[in-house]
Amino acid sequence: MGKQTFYITTPIYYPSDKLHIGHSYTTVICDAFARYHRMAGDEVLFLTGTDEHGQKIQRRAEAKGVPPQEFVDDIVATIKDLWVRLNISYDDFVRTTEPRHHRAVQEIFRRIYAKGDIYKSEYEGWYCTPCETFWLERQLVEGKCPNPDCRRPVELTKEESYFFRMSKYAGRWRQFIEENPDFIQPASRRNEMIKFVEQGLEDLCISRTTFDWGIPVPIEEPGGKKHVIYVWFDALTNYLTGCGWPEADPAKYEKFWPADVHVVGKEIVRFHTIIWPIMLMAADLPLPKTVFGHGWLVLEGEKMSKSKGNVIDPVILCNKYSADALRYFLCREVVFGQDGSYSEAALVSRINADLANDLGNLIHRTQAMNEKYFARIVPAAAELPGDDPVGRLVASLKSLAGETVAEYRRQMEGFGLNEALAAVWRLLGRANKFIDEAAPWNLAKDQSPAGRDRLATVMNALAEVIRIVAFLIYPVMPVTAGKVWDQLGLSGRGPVAGQTLDDAEWGKLPAGVEFHRAEPLFPRIDPATLEVAPEATPAAAPAPAPAAPAELDIADFQKLDLRVAKVLRAECIPGTDKLLKLQIDLGAEQRQIVAGIALHYTPEELVGKEIVVVANLKPAKLRGEVSQGMLLAASTPDHAVLSLVTAERPVPPGSRVK
Ligand code: ME8
After folding, report:
1. Whose CA is nearest to atom 16 of ligand 1?
2. Which helix (H) or strand (E) holds 421?
3. Closest Cα to residue 472, out of 539, 535, 405?
4. Segment 336-379, tens digit of pLDDT
5. Ligand 1 center to residue 23 CA distance, Å?
6. What residues make up the domain containing 26?
7. How close is the Cα of 302 to the center of ligand 1, in Å?
8. Is residue 549 part of a domain?
9. How many domains does one find in the chain?
10. What are phi and psi of 5, to 5 degrees?
C-alpha cells in the first residue's frame, strides 16, 4: 500500500507588521500536526506563506515611503526568521507576489469567468481596509465594521467591479455542508456559517480599480482600465498554488489536493468555508476536506492583535524560555477550538510543573538510579513470577503506555492536540508514581538473583516509558525529544525526527543502551523573578513624564555626561521579560548597562547601534547585574512604542552629546 498523504495549511499572514504569538499559535499547531503525520508514516505537505497584496499593505508602504514590494520583503524576512526560531518544518512558503501564484489566481479567475459566473457591474457599499472586507449597509454596527474584533470606520466605496456570482451556489453549498458534517470544525462554527448563509448570500465584488497593488484581472478592458483582483480571492488561491496548481507541478497537485485541513483563526472561517468552497465549486475543483477554526489567544480578556497593540513578541519568549517551552505551552494550554488566555505566569507555571517537574524529574531520577545500580547501561527486563508485586506494577505501567499511544494517535488524528498531550502527561504522572511505589532504592538492597531481576525490570520499564514519551513529545517539542533520544543512547538509530510511530511500542528498547548524564532539560524558573519590580525598573523603561517639568539652569544640565556609545553585545537576562544586558563601547572604556527595553527590541537588533547614554550615573544593580549608565529612549504615552535615541550620523563612540 502506498503512503497516505496529509496536506495541512496555515492562513497566509499579512506582512503588515511583525507577527505575534497569535500567529505563532496557529503555525506551531500546524507544525505539530505535520510532524505527527510524518512520524505516523504519511507523506506530508505543510504549507504556510504571506498575503502580500491589497489596500492595507499598499497604504502601510506609502506611509513608510517605500514601494510595497520592498515593504513586504523586509517583513517577510522577519516572518521566515521567526519560523526558523520556532522550528517550523514547513514544506513550502507561498508569497502571493510570486509569479507561480499570479498564474494560479489568474487561471481560477479565467475559469470562473468562462463559466459565466463572473460579471461586471458597479459596486456601491462599504469597505473595511484593516479586514479587507466588503460590507453591506445593513451589516454595519453603528456605522462601523461589524467584525467584533475590529469595529473601525469603514469607507464608502463606489467603483466599477467584477462580481462573483456566489448567490447561485447557495443551494449547492448547503447540500455540501449537510453531506459533509466534518467539513467545518468545531461544530459550533458550522452552525454559525449555516446561519450566515441563511440570511442570504450576495454576489461578491472581486476586483478593485482605486489602487493597483494586486494581481491584474486577466481580461482585456475596453478603455485600458486596470482592475486588480480582490485580495481575499487572491489569497485563498494560495492553497492551490502551494500544491503545484495549475501547471507548476501537476503530479504534486494530483497527490495532495484536496487539502486535508486548512487551520485558521475563527475570524476568517467565513472566508474559508463559504467563499473558498464556492470558488472551487465554480472552478470545478474538489473541495478541501476540513476547515478547522480555532479560538483566539487573549490577553486580559481582549484578542491579541496588531491593531490593538497588545501583542506579545514570540522572539522574546523563545530567547527567554526556548522555542520548545513556548511550543508546548501553546499546544497544551488552550483547548484547540476555544479561546485561551495568555500570561507569562501561566507559561512559567507550565514550564515548572509539566516540563521541569513531570518530564524532567522522571528522566533525571531514572538516569541517576540507572547509573548507580547498572553503571548507565539499561538492563534487560526479566520474566517475573505472575504474583510478584513489582511484576504487577510493571505490567500496569506497560498497559497504560500502550493505551496512551493509542489514545494519542486517536486524538492527533481528530485535532485533539491538547488532549493528546494530556494523555502523555498522565503517563508521565503514572511513571513518577511508579518510581515511588516500586522504590528501586529498596529493591537494590536485595542482592539475590530475584532482587536483581526486580530492579532490572523496574529500570528497564522506566527507560521504556521515557523512550515512548520521546516519540510522543516530538511533534510539539522536537528539540527536547532529540535530547531525550540522545540521552537514552539511541542516536545510533538515527535522529528522533526520522523515527516511525510504530516503534513507540513497549519492548522495542534496544538491549544494552547507555543512559547518559545530561544537563536538566528545563531548569525550574523562580516565579518571583518574573516581573521587574517597579522600584527596580531601570533606565529607559517608560515612565510618565511629570505634568510640568521644572526649569533647569544650564549648569544643572551640564552635570549630565551624555555620550554616544556603540552596542557591542546584547543579551536577555533570564527570569525577566523586560531587561536586556548590553556591553557598550564608550571610546575610552567598555561598560555594561542594563536597560528595560526587551519588549521593544531584540538583542540582535541592538548590536552595532550608536545609542545615547547618561555616562555619569551612579552604578546600580538590577537582577544581580551591574548597570553602569542609562540609555535614552522616547516612549508613547501608552508605552506601546519605544524608540531609542541614536546618533543620526556616525560619530566615534564616546562622543559627547550637548
Ligand atoms: O487574516 N489568537 O492574516 P492575519 C490566535 N491574510 N490566532 C491568531 C491571533 C490570536 N490572537 N491573532 C492572529 C489574515 N492569529 C489573512 C489570511 S488566508 C487565505 C489569508 C492567527 O495576518 C489566526 O490564525 O490577520 C488568524 O486567523 C490569523 O493569524 C490572521 O492572520
Report:
1. 13
2. helix 417-438
3. 405
4. 999 999 999 999 999 999 999 999 999 999 999 999 999 999 99
5. 6
6. 5-294
7. 15
8. no
9. 3
10. -110, 155
